[in-house]
Design a protein that fits this description.
By secondary structure, the chain is mainly alpha-helical. It is about 60% helix and about 5% strand. Strand 3 and strand 4 form a beta hairpin.
Length: about 290
């Protein structure tokens, strides 16, 4: 019952969020708050159902501390608003450490202890730009709360993993890994498309494609070329300081009619595919540990 509810809720939300991501490249926090709340409600219910100590529910203390920073923004530029997030993560780290010292040897508690740890890892990955989209990070965090352990339904996933691997690679990180593996094939698709068109410039040909300059403003893309210090430069990684209108204006002044762009990947879509793949097959990387 628990697994069915988790899976139905996650698939429904990921499908709706994927559709929104494809259309607008913006996904409301409502999706991820809903999944997180469901995970918070189910966690103590599952503990009770499994006849485990209800005290294990104290793991929700660091979970709440992290979620309060992820989903609640403080307005203003006061000292309090700047340092309050640090206090939240301090509470989360201290609570996680204390709970770990008490119950780290309890096998049932180990996956629960991994929840706040993985949440903090995802926050760090976002801060260091390893996860680019805020919605992507929040989706992974909500899946971490909702799935403290791998759901096992009707013999799935096919690639089984021992308890140690499941703690090292919790469910949400397996979804991220599988989604990333699927996205890895995109450069091959871009290269084939560019070769067919006769547009060959490296490394841009692996990261995107050329587009009529007058169409760029209406598409979900980043530029891969610009005029900087009166020099026409190319790059493959999106620039955070891009002012699209100004950059396009400068490129037009140079007489360019087509420019290299890289699409804003709606990562919730491959995350949905990675979620389904993880449910059915498991973490693809687990194959490396089976030999």
């Amino acid at each position: 019952m628990f697994a069915a509810l988790q899976l139905l809720a996650a698939i429904a939300v990921l499908c709706l969020a994927s559709a929104r991501d494809l259309r607008t490249r913006r996904v409301s926090n409502t999706f991820w708050i809903g999944l997180s709340v469901l995970g918070i409600v189910l966690l103590p219910l599952r503990i009770i159902n499994d006849d485990a100590p209800i005290e294990y529910s104290l793991i929700l203390i660091p979970v709440f501390a992290i979620l309060s920073d992820v989903f609640l923004d403080l307005d203003g530029d006061s000292t309090f608003s700047r340092y309050f997030p640090m206090l939240k993560y301090g509470v989360a780290l201290a609570a996680t450490t204390a709970l770990g010292m008490v119950w780290i040897d309890e096998k049932y508690f180990q996956p629960l202890l991994a929840i706040p740890v993985v949440m903090m890892v995802i926050v760090l990955m976002y801060m260091f730009d390893l996860i680019r989209g805020g919605a992507d990070a929040k989706a992974l965090i909500s899946l971490t709360v909702l799935f403290p352990a791998y759901p096992v339904v009707a013999g799935f996933p096919l690639i089984a993993a021992n308890e140690t691997l499941q703690i090292i690679f919790p469910f949400s990180l397996s979804v991220l890994v599988n989604a990333a593996i699927l996205v890895v094939f995109l450069p091959i698709v871009f290269l084939a498309k560019n070769l067919a068109r006769g547009d060959v410039r490296f490394p841009q040909a692996f990261a995107g494609y050329r587009m009529d300059i007058d169409r760029v403003a209406g598409k979900h893309v980043w530029l891969m070329e610009r005029i900087e210090n009166d020099q026409h430069i190319f790059y493959a990684r999106p620039r955070s300081d891009e002012d699209l209108v100004q950059e396009l204006g400068r490129l037009r002044e140079r007489g360019l009619t087509r420019v290299w762009v890289t699409p804003k990947i709606p990562f919730i879509v491959p995350m949905l595919a990675g979620f389904v793949l993880t449910i059915i097959a498991g973490n693809v990387l687990f194959l490396l540990f089976s030999f």
